[in-house]
Amino acid sequence: MRPDPTFETQRPRLFGLAYRLLGSRHDAEDVLQDAWLRWQSSDRAAIRDPEAWLVTTTTRLGLDRLRAARSARVHYTGPWLPEPLEIAEDTDPAERHDRAEQVSVAFLALLEQLSPHERAAFLLKEAFDYDYAQIGQLLGHAEANCRQLVHRARERLKAARPRFAVAPQRHRQLLERFMHASQQGDRDAIVALLDANARMRSDGGGKVTATLRPLLGAERIARLYWAVARRGLGLRTRLGTVNGEPAILRFAGARLHSAVLVVIDGERIVEVLTLMNPDKLPPLTART
């Protein structure tokens, strides 16, 4: 079957919405496939606004998938982190920063705090510039209720986000220092880089060895990296990007073993996010 020009024109926008809703590339692709099937079987002559129809269909399918995914994640082994769109060893700095602003893993993880309808309303308003009347029609809510959904979402995200913005260059510098300190198992250096109340989450999904609960406190995180360094796993590390955001890429031989991202508030790292579940890592091989 030949590609449908209307659907293909909207595909990037629809995928962006589905990915932000679900935090999973594979789930977003499944939602787009379902939306495409519905589009193919629809009476398109009766559809006045194809873009609105496709966004509405994608959002509702995404909400259904999000509710099912949340039920499944109750039984997920250890902390759950979003599945990246892209992991690369390097990209253009300007492109990297632009992409990180839109779909950073840390931001997608924050969105998990919202209810499905709060998340959908917030994304439609903030990322896609829909007005409250449009959001209400799409979600089946009164306009006033949509205002409340977006307001609650903003307040929750504001409370959880870092208080101070950090320049991309400063972010990369701190990440590089953290990479070298963790490689060497230098507990004092790691503690100096971390906020005293820092948190670490490792997503192994039960497929590889990872901490099963968030690790709280700079001293505890530093002790873990010290112990890992003493074991001598032989991992090679280098800076790369995850969804355009600077990250530490760790390789076992030529295979990507894990990716580490950090959240920075002012001059200290407040959270360490480690992606280890092989189902969420691409078959990236280290450059020689």
What do you see in this structure?
The structure is a single chain. The protein has 288 residues and is an alpha+beta fold. Among the domains are: 1-75, RNA polymerase sigma factor, region 2, helix turn helix motif (Rna Polymerase Sigma Factor, Chain: A), CATH 1.10.1740; 168-280, Nuclear Transport Factor 2, Chain: A (Roll). The protein has 11 helices and 7 strands. The chain has helices spanning 5-22, 25-41, 50-73, 93-103, 105-111, 116-126, 132-139, 143-160, 168-184, 187-193, 218-231; strands spanning 87-88, 194-203, 215-216, 236-242, 245-252, 255-265, 268-275. It has a 7-stranded mixed beta sheet. Strand 4 (236-242) and strand 5 (245-252) form a beta hairpin. The chain is globular, with a radius of gyration of 20 Å.
Give the CATH architecture of the domain at 168-280.
Roll
Element-level helix/strand string: HHHEHHHHHHHEEHEEEE
Query: What is the global morphology?
Result: globular
- The CATH class of the domain at 168-280, by name, is Alpha Beta
Average pLDDT for all residues: 92
Strand content: 15-25%
How many DSSP helices? Answer: 11
- As a whole number of angstroms, the C-alpha radius of gyration is 20 Å
* Biggest sheet statistics: 7 strands, mixed
CATH topology of the domain at 168-280: Nuclear Transport Factor 2, Chain: A
End-to-end C-alpha gap: 41 Å
How many beta-strand segments? 7
Ranges where pLDDT stays below 50 over 5 or more residues in a row are none
Class computed from helices, strands and strand pairing = alpha+beta
Helix content: 40-55%
Across the major sheet, the strand order is: 1-4-5-6-7-2-3
